[in-house]
């Protein structure tokens, strides 16, 4: 059904755009996931593959996604439609639906972060408290852990989910017009908080040891494909690539913008923040010899709080509040980009008003995020260490993170490389930038990036068959009453696949883009 031409907003300034794009990029991924991945993959073993991934894949794909948005002036599905027809559009919707899963659980994590922020003002740092949820007595668990589990098992997380969604709605309600002023405050504040944390970390006795671990390279480990898999996944996630976010953001820029430099600046800002965060966190953990478990969520909610709890009494609550406030700000400026990208794609296609589109997105989103926090609330004793909610999140995250983003990245390179021709985007970008993209850009987009991504995705698939389907290991946690949960990993994989591929087919099929606007 043809619809009226939608009036699109525009960023007011280049700085505003860069802050918003880097606000999207800098998120939970930078503050905790990076450190958790780096630790899991051997500290120093990680940073060379990571840097290579940044320059060979991250920055070029960022240029590509910014370029697509600016070239077409549209969000992801329509921009791909314009270069590759219906199959391009289909990929765009797959990316958006994958992004919808990510939004749902990203906001669920933010809801827990909000709960921890509230607790940080006092309760989190008490010496000890009981955990009614598990019938544990005072002293059975470290206090931040106890607080976390107690909070999880009340109805509060649902309230926090609604609250975080409400904040998102408020920030995106007028599109770029309302996103720009908010990120202009959030992003600089995040840097200030991070600098405080790093000074605190490095001035601790032995804090520097952690930094050595992060920066001592381990060349032998680079032969391990798992390290590359981790580095590629992390680069896509941290730069918010493979979801169409950057395309949506760049579609609100004037045609004459210098996207090449913007991509480089945004990527470097993001990755320097990530390294600074790594230094702060590794120093904190090593100063107190807290073992940084590899799992990203335990890093956020148990390990780092435990480290903070060890600080001298005067700094505990202050650092605690700063840490969780930082996480919330960083997470919010990322989640709004996810919401905006979804809203922009739907408006491009269906011509709905902003209000209607945001309402639909938020209502669906609240239901989705609630699904991730609910299992704990309903029955915290469901599993002996009470992590069904986390397990659910973990399982979905695995497919979204290790496959979804990279697959979209692979196909978008193929469409631009082989259907559209990268020279078109390159020429469009070169007109407005002092940094000229050469033929090397075409080579990367056509050959190098697709081959590298295919290799990593292939390795992930191989591990899936070789080590057993991801998540099947969780089955051992469930007792007989909950035997049906054994099938959870397979069921979730099925739902994710069906929604992303089937949903995308429906959306591609429904309606038509208004031509020539
Ligand atoms: N880049 C964000 C982070 O590092 C996460 C994110 C991914 C946000 C994709 C939006 C889109 O946390």
Order of helices and strands: HHHHHHHHHHHHHHHHHH
The largest sheet, given as strand count, sense and whether it forms a barrel, is:
none
Give a list of the ligands. Answer: phenylalanine
- Rounded mean pLDDT score: 90
What would you report as the Rg, rounded to the nearest angstrom? 22 Å
Task: Identify low-pLDDT runs.
Answer: 382-387
Shape: globular
First CA to last CA: what distance?
A: 15 Å
Can you tell me about this structure?
With 517 residues, this protein is an all-alpha fold. It is 74% helix and 0% strand. The protein contains 18 helices and no strands. It has helices spanning 14-25, 28-40, 44-72, 76-120, 143-152, 156-172, 176-202, 207-215, 225-238, 245-250, 259-287, 296-309, 313-350, 354-378, 388-420, 422-431, 439-467, 488-509. It is globular. The protein starts with 13 loop residues before the first helix and ends in an 8-residue tail after the last helix. The structure holds phenylalanine.
